[in-house]
């Protein structure tokens, strides 16, 4: 379980709900250090004066805000302390909005809200009310000496607090060059293309299963690191491979319908192969067992057929030999000449 990083309460009107805040995400970025390849010593970051090119001692460094070219306002720790908002230890709900009305690019970092001592009843009340109304709570909270706008959302049995970006931190969509839609028509898309694209989306739709997606780049890099550790080649660098750059190709006219049709065909073939493979995989042991028994059975049937169809001729009469019993594995005894002669005389 993740550690508690904050304790406080949810201010819901006149109701206070004691809660604790736990991280709902983790940073999986590899922590790499800079090293001097000659002696494996760590390399630190050095503060350099950009005018003289010489190092600057820490006591000579101050922070400044550039309000005009080469003109700064100097700030020190006292300025930051006086500007900090008071940490009230409260998730102060200011309003409720439809959860689906919040654009996804406003969300920043998720946290889990867990009821603290004597907070279970109020927590359950707020959770159930928000679940029934489909609302998200917009709140203000101070975390790590900084005030955040946050959205409180319902997920399963938990309340999730997701810090948000303020409006002036989000660039306006109006600055983008987007295709314009004609009245009553989708932007830049033909009806046939939309129909086939919709079919492809339906074929590719599945239940949300986030555990099936992984950072394969990080996994591959960790596999290379583990291989180096096991082989003892921890200080050996990988030599660059000879990779030829592919020639740049000019712009091509895209036949969207052909690409969609090809994608649908590929999805259909893949589904058919999976359907055919699954029953075959279940019947595989029985089929292999039958294949092993087939040569013996075939030899037995062939031997029986030969014994049944083999004949001895005496004049115009044909006498069929009786097939030998399958239970007996001993060779048949030879008949004596005298016995055979008596039968012929008879």
Q: Distance between the terminal alpha carbons, to the nearest Å?
A: 101 Å
Question: Gyration radius, to the nearest Å?
Answer: 40 Å
Mean pLDDT: 76
Order of helices and strands: EEEEEEHEEHEEEHHHEEH
Q: Based on Cα principal axes, name the global outline.
A: extended
The number of distinct β-strands equals 13
How much helicity do the residues have?
25-40%
Stretches where pLDDT is under 50 for at least 5 consecutive residues are 284-346
CATH architecture type of the domain at 1-23 and 84-169: Beta Barrel
Largest sheet: 7 strands, mixed, barrel
Estimated share of beta-strand residues = 15-25%
CATH topology term of the domain at 1-23 and 84-169: Ku70, Chain: A, Domain 2
Strand order of the largest sheet: 1-2-8-11-10-9-7
User: What's the total helix number?
Assistant: 6
CATH C-level label of the domain at 1-23 and 84-169:
Mainly Beta
Helix- and strand-based class? alpha+beta
Can you characterise this structure?
This protein has 346 residues and is α+β, with helices and mostly antiparallel strands. The chain has a domain at 1-23 and 84-169: Ku70, Chain: A, Domain 2 (Beta Barrel), CATH 2.40.290.10. 33% of the residues lie in helices and 24% in strands. The protein contains six helices and 13 strands. It has helices at 77-83, 120-133, 191-204, 216-231, 256-309, 337-345; strands at 6-12, 15-23, 35-36, 41-42, 63-68, 71-75, 90-98, 107-115, 135-143, 146-155, 158-164, 311-314, 317-320. The strands form four sheets. The chain has a seven-stranded mixed β-barrel with strand order 1-2-8-11-10-9-7. Strands 3-4 form a two-stranded antiparallel sheet. Helix 3 (191-204) packs across helix 5. The longest helix has 54 residues, at 256-309. It is extended. The protein starts with 5 loop residues before the first strand and ends with a helix. Residues 284-346 have low confidence and may be disordered. Belongs to the prokaryotic Ku family. Residues 292-318 have a biased composition (Low complexity). Keywords: DNA damage, DNA recombination, DNA repair, DNA-binding. Residues 53-181 form the Ku domain.
